[in-house]
Amino acid sequence: MSSHPLGLTVSHLIFGFSQRLLLADWSAHFGPGLTWVQGPNGCGKSTLLRLMGGAIAPQGGTLSINGCHASQDPLAYRQQVLWLGPDRIAFDHLKPLEWAGFMAGLYPRFDRAAFEQHWDAFALAPHQHQRIAALSTGTQRKLALAVAWAAQTPALLLDEPLSGLDAAALAHAQAVLAVRAQSTEMVTVIASHEALQATDVRVLGL
After folding, report:
1. Nearest-angstrom CA–CA distance, 154 and 164
2. DSSP per-residue letters across the chain
3. Which of 7, 67, 184, 186 minimizes the number of CB atoms within 10 Å of its CB?
4. CB neighbours of 32 closer than 8 A, spacing ≥ 6?
5. Confidence of residue 3 (pLDDT cuts 50, 70, 90)
């Protein structure tokens, strides 16, 4: 049996911009379930999620998921931790299903059946032949969420995932988050200005 605690561990993290230090010797452990990171604008919520997701490198400290250290095996770490930011999808020359297929190749646990369920719930079929660049921000958000949830990574980091969703999409997203809040295996960390409807949400202040 592994001696490593289940979940994503941040140890003595250091990061700042120019003369401003956002995180100084900051440590936390994110266990299975749903953690809502809260704090005033500019406190470092988005930066923390980007750091944990490997989108930017820390200036000090360590990150690990279920005992896999980002600094020792970055590829294995990235396959287990998916970060979804609020920006539009980068590979916007692709069509939605092309991008989903590309992402499926990056994450070994990708569940195509789950993706199809979210695809249908978000009513994305009418957009399947369009380039992602032509899709609205809200539609791109739906596609990104469908892929992120289907990836089945041990840790999922979501920055403002509910922003820009229509009522039906918002209801589906809230329902998925409520299920993930009850997970005993998967970690979900979210930064959101939108209220969460899930119960048993852990709150972490920055």
Report:
1. 26
2. ---SPSSEEEEEEEEEETTEEEEEEEEEEE-SEEEEEE--TTSSHHHHHHHHHTSS--SEEEEEETTEETTT-HHHHHHHEEEE-SSPPS-TTS-HHHHHHHHHHH-TT--HHHHHHHHHHTT-GGGTTS-GGGS-HHHHHHHHHHHHHHH--SEEEEESTTTT--HHHHHHHHHHHHHHHT-SS-EEEEE-SSPP--SS-EEEE-
3. 184
4. 6, 7, 183, 184, 185, 186, 187
5. low
* Total length of the chain: 206
pLDDT, one tens digit per residue, over 80-118 is: 999 999 999 999 999 999 999 999 999 999 999 999 999
Percent of the chain whose predicted confidence (pLDDT) is above 90: 91
Q: From residue 21, how far is each of 31, 51, 56, 103 by CA, in Å?
A: 26, 14, 15, 34
Structural domains present in the chain? 8-91+152-205 (3.40.50.300)
Q: Which residue has the tokens 């399947």?
A: 128
Beta bridge partners of 9: 29, 64
Question: Position 177: which residue type?
Answer: L
Nearest to 52 by CA among 66, 64, 42: 64
